[in-house]
């Protein structure tokens, strides 16, 4: 267990596929207790998710109904980060997102859009809407493509479902644009959570079910990445051609038990 040789002072976790299975109204076995153990041990943790079919409030409520003791401020999501990015750069978005998160962008000027924001739009991924997004990009040389994460697929009700990544890739291919990724596996998204905990990346472990977005993204940001065999995990993920998880475990509980088995290091906090 080489990943345990260096101190772990904080934990980042994905939500869907780690705490609970998407589409199922129950927590993954041991995950509620695992979080309780972390909080009792006074180890800071945050949740970093590409969930774009729910607002933060909706997700927080859903997790509490499943028995999780979580504070809304501990959850980092793509849509609020994208809203700030758009506001700071005065972009006017065309939204190709799920109806539940459209309200996140209500304060943004959406007249004469000069950017496209793509999230997990589900049934909103129609030919008509994809073509409208295409025209926003090709009709304005200065327009930009923003994607809320870039996952290939996720697991819902026991089946794999296409995520936002393939739809973003279609727009990239059709417009010769490179999308700006706000969410995993983008390094800046991970850094938001690290800065909130005031911890260095080398002192934090990321636990997730997506070998590319969770594990690869975390490792690129300087963290250790632990892959769980729940959620969208597939056996071939253990032999990914370019990403080697620092550990592969049964579930969140096993990962947290290993973290807690370490001798607790002295807490180091970054200067303001």
Automatic annotation (TrEMBL):
InterPro entries: HAD-like_sf, HAD-SF_hydro_IIA, HAD_sf, LHPP/HDHD2. Its cofactor is Mg(2+). Keywords: Cytoplasm, Hydrolase, Magnesium, Metal-binding, Nucleus. Its EC number is 3.6.1.1. Its main location: cytoplasm. The keyword Hydrolase applies. Phosphatase that hydrolyzes imidodiphosphate, 3-phosphohistidine and 6-phospholysine. Has broad substrate specificity and can also hydrolyze inorganic diphosphate, but with lower efficiency. This is Phospholysine phosphohistidine inorganic pyrophosphate phosphatase.
């Amino acid at each position: 267990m080489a990943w345990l040789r260096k101190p772990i002072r904080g934990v980042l976790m994905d939500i869907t596929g780690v705490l609970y299975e998407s589409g199922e109204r129950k927590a993954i076995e041991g995950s509620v207790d695992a979080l309780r153990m972390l909080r009792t041990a006074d180890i800071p943790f945050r949740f970093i998710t590409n969930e774009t079919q729910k607002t933060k409030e909706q997700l927080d409520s859903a997790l509490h109904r499943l028995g999780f003791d979580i504070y809304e401020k501990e959850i980092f999501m793509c849509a609020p980060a994208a809203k700030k990015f758009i506001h700071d750069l005065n972009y006017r978005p065309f939204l190709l997102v799920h109806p539940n998160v459209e309200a996140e962008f209500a304060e943004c000027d959406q007249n004469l859009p000069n950017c496209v924001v793509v999230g997990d739009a589900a049934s909103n991924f129609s030919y008509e809407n994809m073509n409208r997004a295409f025209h926003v990009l090709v009709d304005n040389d200065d327009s930009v493509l923003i994607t809320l994460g870039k996952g290939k697929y996720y697991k819902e009700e026991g089946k794999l479902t296409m995520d936002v990544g393939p739809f973003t890739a279609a727009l990239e291919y059709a417009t010769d644009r490179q999308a700006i990724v706000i969410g995993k596996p983008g390094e800046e998204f991970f850094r938001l959570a690290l800065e909130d905990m005031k911890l260095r990346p080398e002192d934090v472990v990321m636990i997730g079910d997506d070998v590319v977005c969770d594990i690869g993204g975390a490792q690129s940001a300087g963290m250790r990445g632990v892959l769980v065999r729940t959620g969208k995990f597939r056996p071939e993920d253990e032999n990914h051609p370019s990403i080697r998880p620092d550990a592969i475990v049964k579930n969140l509980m096993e990962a947290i038990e290993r973290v807690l088995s370490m001798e607790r290091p002295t807490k180091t906090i970054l200067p303001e």
